[in-house]
């Protein structure tokens, strides 16, 4: 057996996963074992040549051998300088060989340590490699040797074929591209991804600096697009541009165009974004569309009409939220798309209209060679440049982004409306120009394939066929729900050194690779195109515009606008009547229900498309998860409340469906606990928020089943909550402290052990005494520690709990309180270091001190002091819960139970201004910024809806800020 379970190789899988998804590949992968044997090296005098990189001469020897094995000297007459052509081509082969063999060279040389001088050892080893004609090396590292030679020979044969095809079609090339027959080839650049046995798109350089693009695949996409825009240009004021094309069936040529990054025009980008949206395009990122003197021009159109990702399941909803985002304007690749990684502080925007500046850094590591010309050589991950990956908080940059967004929307809307008003004409044009077109199906992202190819060149899999096969089989992890024929084909192509390539036809469902059938699509590209065209409308236009806005504001910092509310702005005579509040509730209720979408599978609760956090490095358009902060859980809880208040049975039913499905999933255990826990257990970022919401919904509806299920699930994750964490336990959003507070609030008989409490007291002292950049706030600062222990102290009167609370109070007074007696966020002289917010400002501190007061630790005066501070500082004017006016209001309202007189004026002030129904509705209708586009609870529409529900009924205590139910 080739494949067997090994945790080091498959860390994401358990044994049952491996058996179900990877082991079925065993028999197929076992066949990918024959080493390449038809290649013989000859003697060479290259050994004395100067090396530009380690093992350059060794790789030159291999390159020379590949050249001799594949080159036809009859082709020399088509090149301007055969010697220079050979030199450039062999250097390319040499670099490919280097990329495959360097890690094995670096390992092998350490076995040949013959002297005390590492430089001498290098000379001895390289001379040995060449004189031995790699015979010993190729036997030891036979896996990578065979794979490397096969790829090189395939690439060399592809170059030969390129020249032959150019020669066969010189008359047509001259006619279309104005490259005279007499002009010879100078060089061929083929540095891109290879597909189908070493073929790749090539730039052919002729005399007089003329260039031509050769594409070793059908260019139906480019041809169809060229014909389509000819027909569309009669409808538009600003004409679309395209490449010149020569279609020769299984391959073709296109014109070479020069980039002009200075000619960026976001309105033009919006126009092409609309067209690509209608054509169900994918992969239109910055390397597949060029800014040119003639506007934006797509240079690679093989992924027009890209179909839905193949899943080997009939249970999947076809028109689900993931499919919607995939087929949205965001899915085209034209909008800003921020790629980032959880484990590192790097990101890059690969979208065509994205910003790539000094703060861009590829999230994909590359190798670096240290001491390369010695036996001490090390092949290490290149250290990435440290960049500032924080969200942009610059007024000028913000204006620039909003200007780009506005211009792109203008162009997008223009073309959308033209096609909407000429829908039948457009459909007929597309069906005519793309009839029988051959296109590409992309199953996995290219960088995923590149990771597999790279890991296969490590020294161990280079000589161990079983390990190489196991690493190759990891591609199956990306396709656990896909047809196994797809995975098998991926394995074959990767083993050949190619990026997997699948072909499809516009009006067919068959998926092929190298002209062999692989599997079926659920719907043909033509059928999916017709689904798209039947769904276009003004409503769809508005949805796409929302997604455009989300993509552009992804890297902008959260707006924190604080202003002094003037007495003149407060009209105490204004009475906010019940009907006004109900109308406002209806606005948000309808706004949310109109955008509800199916999840991928029917048994999963419904969801929304909205801003999704990228590990704290931005918010990109995506499908909302289950977190309480910005996910789908909060909206359904608010819809349950609002539906009951307005007696809207349809909305109540929608909310009931969500909580019933959540309950069923937990009861029937149709979940993978590992996957659930991967989302975290924090109050706002993981499972705990779902549990609290389910319990709260059960209390609202008197549904004991929901409540009991919630408490049982808390038992299920109790061990995980108490585990040692790499992160910050005392973080309200993602740490375990918030989850424990939730449980204390909803489960009367729950308490922590004294040993655990002692551990956390010790951890807390370590933080307050040693941590740099301490903040005073509730979400991420030391008042969270105080809040946590105050909740516990109410139930468990332990002296060391009281002591830590009192010590934190002293630190706040001595280190965070300024000369004006105002508590600051940080220990800093920054004048803007005071906030009214719940998450990091005085409102959160108020909640924390109030819990200390209720626990009998603080006096009334300590609470009143913070209320007075809030009275005199500027207040947030952004109506959201986390760091906005609604959070200030909710905190004050909670405290007003015991401080009614002291909070009355502030609450009235907010009710008449930034927390009034009219103000909130107007803010969200304005549509500027991420909050207005978010369905979420803490920074979106749901927070506003919950506030209005509580404004309508003062008896409602439900609050995610205090975890009241």
UniProtKB/TrEMBL annotation:
InterPro entries for the chain? LANC-like, Lant_dehyd, Lanti_2_LanM
Q: Which UniProt keywords apply?
A: Metal-binding, Plasmid, Zinc
Q: Name one GO biological process term.
A: peptide modification
Q: Does the keyword Zinc apply?
A: yes
Q: Name one GO molecular function term.
A: metal ion binding
Q: Which residues cross the membrane?
A: none
Ranges where the Lantibiotic biosynthesis protein dehydration domain occurs: 143-504
Q: Which residues bind Zn(2+)?
A: 839, 882-883
Q: Which protein are we looking at?
A: Lantibiotic mersacidin modifying enzyme
- Give the source lineage, highest ranks first: Bacteria, Bacillati, Bacillota, Bacilli, Bacillales
The gene it comes from is sacM1
């Amino acid at each position: 057996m080739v494949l067997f379970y090994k945790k080091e190789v498959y860390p994401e899988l358990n044994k049952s996963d491996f058996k179900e998804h990877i082991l079925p590949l065993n028999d197929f992968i076992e066949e990918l074992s024959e080493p390449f044997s038809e290649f013989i090296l000859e003697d060479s005098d290259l050994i004395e040549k100067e090396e530009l990189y380690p093992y350059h001469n060794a790789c030159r020897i291999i390159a020379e051998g590949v050249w001799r094995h594949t080159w036809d000297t009859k082709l020399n007459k088509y090149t301007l300088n055969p010697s220079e052509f050979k030199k450039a081509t062999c250097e390319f082969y040499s670099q490919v060989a280097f990329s495959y063999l360097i890690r094995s060279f670096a390992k092998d040389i350490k076995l040949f340590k013959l002297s005390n001088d590492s430089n001498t050892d290098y000379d001895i080893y390289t001379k040995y490699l060449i004189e031995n004609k790699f015979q010993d090396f190729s036997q030891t590292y036979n896996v990578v040797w065979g794979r490397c030679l096969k790829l090189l020979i395939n690439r060399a044969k592809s170059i030969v074929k390129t020249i032959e095809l150019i020669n066969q079609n010189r008359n047509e090339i001259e006619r279309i591209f104005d490259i005279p027959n007499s002009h010879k080839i100078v060089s061929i650049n083929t540095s891109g991804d290879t597909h189908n046995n070493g073929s790749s798109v090539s730039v052919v350089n002729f005399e007089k600096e003329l260039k031509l693009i050769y594409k070793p695949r059908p260019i139906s996409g480019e041809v169809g697009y060229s014909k389509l825009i000819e027909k569309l240009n009669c409808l538009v004021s600003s004409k679309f541009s395209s490449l010149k094309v020569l279609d020769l069936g299984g391959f073709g040529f296109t014109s070479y165009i020069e980039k002009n990054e200075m000619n960026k025009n976001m309105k033009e980008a919006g126009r092409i974004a609309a067209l690509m949206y209608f054509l169900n395009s994918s992969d239109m990122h910055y390397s597949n569309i060029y800014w040119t003197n003639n506007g934006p021009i797509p240079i690679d159109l093989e992924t027009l009409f890209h179909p839905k990702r193949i899943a080997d399941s009939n249970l999947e909803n076809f028109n689900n939220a993931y499919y919607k985002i995939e087929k949205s304007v965001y899915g085209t690749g034209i909008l800003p798309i921020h790629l980032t990684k959880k484990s590192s502080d790097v990101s890059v925007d690969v979208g065509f209209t994205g910003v790539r500046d000094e703060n861009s850094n590829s999230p994909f590591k590359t190798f670096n060679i240290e001491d390369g010309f010695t036996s001490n050589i090390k092949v290490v991950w290149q250290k990435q440049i440290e960049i500032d990956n924080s969200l942009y908080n610059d007024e000028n940059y913000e204006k620039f982004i909003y200007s780009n967004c506005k211009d792109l929307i203008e162009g997008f809307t223009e073309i959308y409306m033209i096609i909407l008003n000429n829908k039948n004409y457009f459909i007929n044009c597309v069906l005519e120009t793309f009839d029988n077109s051959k296109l590409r199906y992309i199953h996995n992202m290219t960088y995923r394939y590149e990771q597999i190819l790279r890991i296969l060149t490590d020294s161990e899999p280079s000589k161990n066929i079983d390990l190489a096969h196991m690493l190759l089989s990891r591609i199956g992890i990306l396709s656990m729900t896909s047809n196994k024929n797809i995975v098998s084909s991926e394995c074959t192509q990767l083993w050949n050194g190619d990026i997997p390539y699948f072909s499809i036809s516009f009006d067919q469902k068959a998926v092929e690779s190298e002209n062999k059938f692989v599997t079926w699509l659920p719907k043909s590209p033509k059928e999916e195109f017709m689904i798209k065209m039947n769904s276009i409308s003004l409503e769809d236009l508005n949805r796409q515009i929302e997604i455009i806005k989300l993509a552009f504001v992804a890297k902008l910092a959260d707006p924190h606008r604080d202003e002094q509310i003037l007495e003149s702005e407060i009209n105490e005579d204004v009475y906010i009547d019940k009907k006004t509040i109900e109308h406002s509730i209806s606005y948000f209720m309808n706004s949310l229900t109109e955008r509800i979408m199916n999840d991928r599978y029917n048994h999963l609760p419904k969801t929304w498309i909205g801003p999704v956090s990228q590990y704290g490095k931005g918010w990109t358009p995506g499908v909302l998860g289950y977190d309480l902060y910005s996910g789908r859980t909060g909206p359904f809880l608010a819809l349950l409340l609002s539906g009951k208040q307005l007696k809207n049975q349809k909305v109540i039913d929608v909310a009931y469906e969500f909580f019933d499905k959540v309950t069923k999933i937990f009861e029937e255990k149709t979940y993978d606990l590992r996957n659930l826990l991967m989302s975290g257990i924090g109050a706002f970022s993981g499972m705990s928020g779902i549990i609290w919401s389910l319990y709260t919904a059960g209390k609202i509806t008197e549904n004991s089943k929901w409540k009991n299920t919630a408490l049982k699930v808390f038992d299920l994750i109790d061990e995980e909550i108490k585990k040692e964490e790499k992160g910050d336990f005392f973080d309200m959003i993602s740490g375990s402290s918030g989850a424990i507070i939730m449980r204390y609030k909803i489960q009367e008989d729950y308490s922590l052990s004294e040993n655990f409490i002692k551990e956390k007291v010790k951890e807390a002292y370590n933080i307050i005494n040693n941590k740099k950049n301490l903040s005073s706030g509730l979400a991420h600062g030391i008042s969270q520690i105080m809040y946590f222990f105050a909740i516990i102290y109410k139930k468990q009167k332990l002296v060391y709990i009281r002591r830590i609370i009192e010590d934190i109070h002293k630190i706040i007074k001595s280190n965070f309180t300024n000369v004006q007696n105002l508590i600051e966020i940080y220990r800093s002289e920054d004048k803007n270091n005071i906030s009214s917010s719940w998450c990091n400002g005085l409102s959160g501190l108020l909640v924390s001190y109030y819990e200390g007061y209720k626990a009998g630790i603080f006096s009334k005066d300590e609470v009143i002091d913070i209320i007075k501070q809030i009275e005199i500082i500027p207040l947030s004017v952004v109506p959201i819960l986390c760091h906005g006016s609604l959070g200030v209001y909710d905190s004050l309202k909670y405290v007003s139970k015991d401080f009614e007189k002291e909070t009355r004026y502030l609450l009235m002030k907010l009710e008449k201004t930034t927390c009034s129904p009219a103000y909130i509705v107007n803010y969200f209708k304005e549509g500027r910024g991420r909050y207005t586009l978010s369905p979420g609870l803490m920074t979106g529409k749901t927070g506003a809806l919950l506030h209005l529900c509580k404004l309508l009924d003062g008896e409602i205590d439900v609050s995610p800020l205090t975890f009241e139910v």
